[in-house]
Amino acid sequence: MATFLYKLGRLAFRRRHFVALIWVALLTLAGVGAASAPPAGTTSFSIPGTEAQKAFDLLEERFPGTSADGATARVVFKAPSGETMTAADNKATVEKTVADLADGSEVASVADPYTGNAVSEDGTVAYASVRYDVSGMELEDTTKDALEDAAQQARDAGLTVEVGGDALQAVPHTGATEVIGIAVAAVVLVITFGSLVAAGLPLLTALIGVGIGVSSITALASALELGSTTSILAMMIGLAVGIDYALFIVSRYRAELAEGREREEAAGRAVGTAGSAVVFAGLTVVIALVGLAVVNIPMLTKMGIAAAGTVAIAVLIALTMVPALLGYAGRRVKPTGAKSKLLGGGRKNGAEADGKPAKANLGTRWASFVVRRPLAVLLLGVIGLGAAAIPAASLELGLPDDGSQPTSTTQRRAYDLLSEGFGPGFNGPLMVVVDAKGSDAPKQVFTDVSNEIRGLEDVVAVTPPAPNKGGDTATITVIPDSKPSSVQTEDLVHAIRDAGGDIQADTGAETLVTGSTAMNIDVSEKLNDALLPYLVLVVGLAFLLLIVVFRSILVPLKAALGFLLSVMAALGAVVAVFQWGWLSGLMGVEETGPVMSMMPIFMVGVVFGLAMDYEVFLVTRMREAHVHGEKPNQAVVTGFRHGARVVTAAAVIMMAVFAGFIGSSEAMVKMIGFGLAIAVFFDAFVVRMAIVPAVLALLGKKAWWLPKWLDRALPNVDVEGEGLRTARERGSGPDEDRELART
């Protein structure tokens, strides 16, 4: 591995014009593809294997032309204080609004409140249901404007009017904080390298990689039904790893220059050593992201694969374009310890002027402290992360609805008005689909199901069965007494399904429950059921990969256990902020509520991949020192001396990039941005910087133990570059090294 990458790095350095041209051509091609691609259409949210999805598919088959996946809107009216919606003036205003809405070109149907029993018992609240032919993301702007104009005209007439549903949903945006995150990354790079040119290389290569990845996603969005969230998450992860991977190679290049090597040789060795770590770190991230496919939720699978593709591009760019740009930069990239004149280069510090050895850096001093007090550091780190993880015990999962929107939005105010007028369960109606195709008396079955549901607890209302044209399938709308995200509503869904099972045994008719509320319940259960298999798959594959990298059993085991601590602490922080409301104002969280259902499994995947990044980058330096003959504790200190500053910079950069997405208008992106930023903090600064050296110090030589039979069976990937070092130790000069690289 190291020898191959060494050759690749030197080749890219020498043929930099060709390498740069290839990547610029790919960026241009992806950009042209994105610009000429048709706009993304509807993003289908299907959950294969769930009852809610099965019922939805049955509706598409038995009720053709009903636009089951079309956008919906509820225009909610409230009468002025002391009046009712049945008053003549108010009724006339509503009827005019309904007529105006019905004239829309994309409107499938509009239900009049006065003929559809959509007026509250006290007469103060009414609503009109609007169904469209296309999804909310496909609605024309003129259609949305007509909806808002109709609501405004009713407001001007003296009514309180709010609009709920998905007809007014907007494409999420990330906000200016994303730019701030990149700016912070730039500052950290300048401080780390002491050179504007060296700092600019990781940023430039990361932006090119993200540009190719996101443009490709945009170009394929329509064909593959990729949502807007997919490109945002690919950008988030691609930026973070792209900067980090380039950072490690540039840092190793500067270290090789400091040892007196020529620039082409230094580039080759940087790619051969740090590049090996980049390859395996990238592989762990890709495994974790692609592994999301085991959940069998298409949207989540697409998000994972798209982000994994962006990570793969970041790895390839780090291995090829970074050494090419180093060739262009020439002497403007200084060896480690040297700074550009702009940043104070050329001035010697006091120690150097007196001929005394330079003072040990902070990483060396910290590692020396940890190996002297390993047990205390280990206990403090584990107890601290355990305390941060405590809120995770109160984790509540759910998918967002209008009730989780900020109170400043019309969707949330419509939700509250409907709860006030019709009860909290009215915002989460359940749709029961009765398939009586195999029954001899379908009408009687429909009636029996309806009567059975009326007798259940937590049911406020049950509409009469509405059969299809064939008379073999009917829909029944059930209004729960509890809000959509409550445990009582979840129990009601299961109770209806249990009752349907008994009816099917007696009559052969199948009863299915669907609707957004039932879909949310099924998604949460599916994600919970998939979490353990996903953990076993991803952690197991990465564990095997790390055994190959480190040639050790205990080091990969420690890495996996440390990850579990990080992810549990991060989930605890997410619960504290987004569910409990701690620091919610600072984070821009206007409304607390359940944590996104897919948040835990997505965080597990991404955080595991990123955690292994730091494990590989930091511990390979320790492994390298150990292979070259240093004692275990000294190898830990050596690894920190060379890697702590760079890993710290990488972690700060990654935190800054992720934190930049907290400004997103999309609740899921905001939550993931915060969760990943805090997870990187816990993993980099507590687990990898404190717990890892403490455990290695306690284990000593046992940390690198590997059964002899396994040692013989495993391939030697030489991630620490021992093959390159051996050639040098034989006394070969630069010419002999070049000849060796060609063989």
Describe the protein.
A hairpin with a 5-residue loop joins strand 8 (466-467) and strand 9. Residues 341-355 and 726-743 have low confidence and may be disordered. With 743 residues, the protein is an alpha+beta fold. The protein has 25 helices and eleven strands. The strands form three sheets. Strands 6, 7, 8, 9 and 10 form a five-stranded antiparallel beta sheet that branches. Strands 2-3-1-4 form a four-stranded antiparallel beta sheet, sandwiched between helices. The chain has helices at 2-14, 16-36, 51-62, 88-102, 141-156, 177-193, 196-224, 228-258, 263-290, 298-329, 350-353, 362-372, 374-389, 410-422, 442-454, 487-507, 516-550, 554-579, 584-587, 599-627, 632-659, 667-699, 708-713, 722-729, 734-742; strands at residues 72-78, 107-111, 125-132, 160-165, 397-398, 430-435, 459-462, 466-467, 473-480, 510-514, 595-596.
The total count of helices amounts to: 25
Structural class computed from helices and strand pairing: alpha+beta
Shape: elongated
Number of strands: 11
What integer is the average pLDDT? 81
Q: What share of residues are in beta strands? A: 5-15%
The largest sheet is:
5 strands, antiparallel
Uncertain segments are 341-355, 726-743
Helical proportion, percent range: 55-70%
Distance between the termini: 14 Å
What Rg is obtained from the alpha carbons, in whole angstroms?
A: 30 Å
